[in-house]
Design brief:
heterodimer; A: 783 residues; alpha+beta; seven-stranded mixed beta sheet; 24 helices; 24 strands; B: 243 residues; alpha/beta; six-stranded mixed beta sheet
């Protein structure tokens, strides 16, 4: 019976090949989109799952409370947390720290120098995480204070084909480390990344107290015993630390254990890839729905030509159940062919997709999860696309077919129209969303930040340059192309250090704002074009002016003192005089409103040099800077970037998401048009006699054309009316994620509506015109 | 084999009610060849559809192989029809996507017969209908007469007890029509019961009996033609036919 169905299906496909191609093409494109999104989602969901007993691994995170309802979710902890939690929380088997920031270190071996990023970890790091060791014993490879573990890639880079074990490298010209192990480079689906690992005891050599429970700046991980009540463990940790820490408004900082599997998808501060996973998942489903609607519409339209066959089969003994099964088999075969094409399309699009998403996704045909996913997609498609046509096609009774008495009914035609309307509604919503997402991105990127970032070169301040920064600046300013030179610990568009504990005269004890801070040069304001609101920007113009601070208007408003210039603010043991107030400016990506900030001059904290240049002759200016850098800091390679490029790269993720969204919106419109093409083609072909009669009775080609265009226009108009409020609502909700939002302008909707209408019109007009221009005699003869 | 008792069939639309069959009493014995005649719209096809278990009567009883089936649902009717009743239609009603062999094989597929058995039966019947040489051809490649031979082959391949033929020669020229009638006669001689609707008196004469229908009534049978019936006989609601 299956062989019979297969033969029958293939012959049927050949007979109606144009519609078969339209169906297969629509389904293939739809399924290719679904497969791509599925691969992406699978990759996102696979983060960190390759470790042994992943469910027992946690990261310690915290919720800090400030004034009013203000709270801050923080994923870093103190230097002493790993030891503290192991000693005080039952159930902790291993605990380990991991420095998340990535400073560059100079690694030297045999007269060769490499500037590389090094992470510091506890030895138990390799007991918690399963990164495979190529050489060395994970239990003791990081036990010695001056041991270093590197990836295979780095080993080849530094040592070539030599065995690196036992070899000694020098770090920053000062510290000798012995290679004790080679480790596999973390895969892309790991939130942890490293090329080099050294013991965290190195911090002691740098003068830090390893048991310090003050500043939060690194990650702490634990491996728990099975069955530990993790909620209680978090509560116990909170209660213990509450005894020794300050409260804010009666609330202690809440500590809790974040499961490893959630770290990538659910960043503690909200948002995160999980949102994109859900959105993309929804898009995949919608695109599949559009493709299935095509299939349903075309199949039910073609079904009218199959009623005779169905009726006959019933006459000779087929019951409805059998016919429905036969039809499902046909659908399954069609979907299978489409799946094959979808795979081919996916393989072709994967390189572009990987570039867009920054991933290295590939089709893993033997991955059980992937196979299960594909089977599910296939079955869902067969069910969605096949159920209604199966019921519809098997519905007419044998006797009605024999009598030739098939009444298709207005209801069935209306159902098809509803499906087309749903398709176009989804496509229009996607178009509107794409336009607004683009608009928001452009708005954010071009928004007045309150600082000038054009023509500013940014370089790391390290090595010998750290002690000679003033002389370096003097030499730089000798070049007439260089306008300003200043220093800081952060780029002005991304300042992430903050804290509380600021005090001032008349401060309410309940008021405990979280204030950002940055160490800057005295010429920071003129370099970046910050506007002075009151006072001056470090008027002493010296790097020794370490008792003065400049604050922004937001902080000034919080403090609430009328004449703030000259007032003393205290933090810890420091008493600092306010010498200036600057207008607010965005020192973080523009998702959030401007926060309070304090700027001070602490040269020891300087990590970056900023050189403002004129826009002409930039190449020569860069060459000049490079040559000077070589003179001052020959041990380190010259690395630089332009601040505006750095700023734009902050939005790389947004840009990629925007592109992906645009492509999927395009695919959805394409599939919708394919369906409209097929359906209109079928309807027009069936009306050949009708057209012939109208022409014989005086209708011209234009009036025939308008007859069809009017009927399709009605569908698009309804789709537009339905889609507008839905699109408005979704975009309004999405824009709530941004402190600064673009408008949801009326012209976006008009543009989307016009685009959808124009595309649909083009699709339908071609065939309508062909049918309308035909000689009426041919139409009647055809019939 | 077949017996109907006061069979009524009424078709209802929103505005109109049509009585297609009006208290029809008919009995057909095993092995009979019955022709049904009457003007267009008199209810011939309706009667055939009910006898073929394609439709249910509105009122009355229908005994098929001693089983009362008038109220059966479609599922039961399909099960009864399978293998027991074969159909031949005026417009052949072959499936265009299937070749001759596959069209004839179709009823056997629904009887869940084994492949080897099906092959034998189909080959036998194609030989009988003298159409084996065209078994790989599709209906569009055959003449009208050949298509009807295939339709007859399909109707008989499962050795049904009853064949219902609705104007089987209607779309054929006299030569082909004659061929089809010969086939039906031979089948009847072999013991198959046949009920045939026809407009042709000449073809009707080849049956054992002729039943005349008029406005949903059986008005006469066998030797009497419609024209000979008096107005008085037509006006009576129940005209029982003599055998």
């Amino acid at each position: 019976m299956f062989k019979y169905n297969l033969k029958f299906t293939l012959r049927n496909l050949l007979r109606f090949r144009v519609y078969a191609i339209i169906n297969i093409l629509g389904l293939s494109v739809g399924m290719a989109c679904v497969i791509l999104i599925y691969l992406w989602v699978q990759d996102e969901l696979s983060f960190d799952r390759f470790h042994k007993d992943t469910e027992d691994i946690y990261r310690i995170v915290q919720t800090q409370y400030y004034t009013g309802d203000e709270k801050l979710e923080v994923d870093v902890t103190q230097l002493g947390m790993a030891k503290y939690v192991k000693e005080n929380i039952p159930g902790v088997v291993h605990s380990a720290r991991y420095t998340r920031w990535t400073l560059d270190f100079l690694i030297q071996y045999n007269n060769k120098s490499f500037l590389e990023k090094i992470h510091m970890v506890d030895p138990e790091f390799l007991q918690i995480f399963s990164f495979p060791l190529i050489k060395g014993d994970r239990k003791n490879v990081l036990n010695e204070p001056r041991s270093i573990v590197l990836t295979g890639e780095m080993s080849e880079k530094i040592f070539g084909k030599e065995n690196p074990i036992g070899k000694i490298v020098t770090i920053n010209n000062l510290y000798a480390f012995t290679v004790t192990g080679i480790i596999t480079k973390p895969p892309k689906n790991s939130h942890l990344w490293f090329n080099f690992l050294i013991p965290i005891t190195f911090f002691k050599e740098l003068g830090r107290d390893l048991d310090d429970m003050g500043n939060n700046f690194l990650f702490t991980y634990v491996r728990m015993n099975k069955g530990v009540d993790i909620e209680n463990a978090g509560k116990k940790l909170t209660d213990l630390l509450c005894e020794t820490q300050d409260e804010h408004e009666g609330k202690c900082t809440r500590y809790y254990f974040q499961p490893l599997k959630r770290i990538h998808l659910y960043p503690v501060w909200g948002g995160g890839p999980i949102k994109t996973v859900k959105i993309f998942g929804l898009i995949a489903f919608l695109i599949l729905v559009i493709a299935c609607i095509n299939f349903i519409n075309l199949s039910t339209a073609l079904a009218t030509g199959r009623f005779r066959e169905i009726g006959l089969k019933k006459v000779v003994g087929a019951n409805r159940r059998r016919l429905i099964i036969q039809y499902y088999i046909e659908v399954f075969l069609l979907v299978f062919i489409s799946l094959f094409l979808a795979f081919t399309l996916t393989e072709t699009l994967l390189p572009v997709f990987n570039e867009l998403t920054g991933k290295e996704i590939s089709i893993q045909l033997f991955n059980p999860e992937f196979i299960l996913g594909i089977i599910s997609v296939t079955l869902v498609t067969v069910f969605l696309a096949g159920t209604y046509p199966a019921l519809y096609i098997s519905s007419p009774s044998a006797v009605n077919v024999i009598k030739g008495d098939i009444y298709f009914g207005k209801k069935k035609a209306i159902f098809r129209e509803i499906l087309v309307i749903v398709q176009f509604s989804i496509a229009i919503i996607l178009i509107i969303n794409t336009i607004i997402i683009n608009k928001q991105l452009v708005f954010i990127q071009n928004r007045e930040l309150g600082i000038n970032k054009e023509n500013i070169i940014c370089m790391p301040l390290r090595g010998d340059l750290k002690n000679k920064y003033e002389i370096f600046k003097t030499e730089l300013l000798k070049n007439k192309n260089i306008l300003n030179v200043t220093f800081s610990d952060w780029k002005p568009t991304g300042i992430y250090s903050n804290g509380s504990g600021w005090d001032w005269p008349g401060k309410s004890p309940d008021l405990e704002p979280l204030v950002s801070h940055s160490s800057v040069g005295y010429d920071y304001a003129e370099t970046f074009g910050l506007k002075i609101n009151k006072g001056d920007f470090f008027p002493k113009r010296t790097y020794d002016d370490q008792s003065s601070i400049v604050i922004n208007k937001t902080f000034a408003n919080i403090i609430g003192i009328e004449e703030l210039i000259g007032e003393i603010l205290t933090i810890g043991d420091y008493k600092l005089k306010v010498v200036g107030i600057v207008e607010d400016y965005n020192f973080k990506p523009a998702y959030n409103k401007v926060e309070p900030i304090v700027l001070f001059i602490f040269p020891d904290e300087f990590k970056l040099v900023f050189v403002k240049v004129i826009s002409q002759d930039i190449n020569n200016t860069v060459k000049f800077i490079e040559d000077l850098h070589k003179e001052f800091n020959s041990a380190y390679p010259f690395e630089y970037s332009f601040l505006d490029d750095d700023y734009n790269s902050l939005y790389w993720g947004e840009k990629q998401r925007r592109k992906i969204f645009s492509y999927f919106a395009f695919f959805s419109i394409f599939i919708s048009c394919l369906g409209l093409f097929g359906l209109s083609s079928f309807i027009i072909n069936r009306s050949t006699k009708d057209i012939g009669i109208r022409k014989v009775n005086g209708a011209n080609a234009l009036s025939i054309l308008s007859l069809y265009i009017n009927s399709f226009s009605k569908w698009i108009a309804i789709a537009i009316i339905i889609s507008f409020p839905v699109a408005y609502y979704t975009m309004h909700k999405w824009l709530q994620n941004y402190a600064y939002k673009t408008d949801i302008s009326w012209w976006v909707f008009a543009l989307a509506g016009i685009m959808a209408y124009a595309i649909a019109l083009l699709t339908v007009s071609l065939q309508s015109w062909r049918a309308a221009s035909r000689n009426p005699v041919e139409s009647l003869r055809y019939e | 084999m077949i017996k109907t008792s006061n069979l009524v069939k009424i078709f209802r639309t929103e505005e109109i009610e049509t009585t297609a069959l009006n208290k029809v009493n008919l009995e057909v014995k095993k092995g009979e060849f019955v022709a049904v005649m009457g003007p267009s719209g008199c209810g011939k096809s309706t009667l055939l559809n009910i006898l073929g278990l394609l439709d249910n009567p509105s009122k009355g009883e229908y005994y098929f192989m001693d089983q009362e089936v008038s109220g059966h649902k479609e599922r039961h009717r399909t099960n009864l029809r399978k293998g027991n009743i074969g159909f031949v239609f005026q417009s052949f009603n072959l499936i265009d996507e299937l070749n001759v062999y596959e069209n004839v094989e179709l009823p056997l597929l629904y009887l869940k017969m084994k492949s080897s058995q099906r092959k034998k039966k189909v080959s036998d019947v194609l030989d009988r209908m003298q159409i084996s040489h065209r078994k790989k051809h599709f209906p569009q490649q055959l003449s009208g007469g050949q298509q009807q031979r295939v339709a007859v082959a399909r109707a008989v391949v499962s050795n049904p007890l009853l064949i219902l033929a609705d104007e089987p020669t209607g779309n054929l020229d006299s030569k082909n029509g004659e061929e089809v009638m010969n086939l039906l006669e031979n089948l009847n001689n072999d013991g198959t019961t046949i009920i045939m609707v026809t407009h042709s008196p000449a073809y009707a004469e080849r049956a054992n009996r002729i039943v005349h229908l008029f406005d949903g009534y059986i008005v006469t049978e066998n030797i009497k033609q419609l024209d000979d019936i008096s107005d008085k006989e037509i006006s009576s609601k129940e005209v029982t036919v003599r055998f």
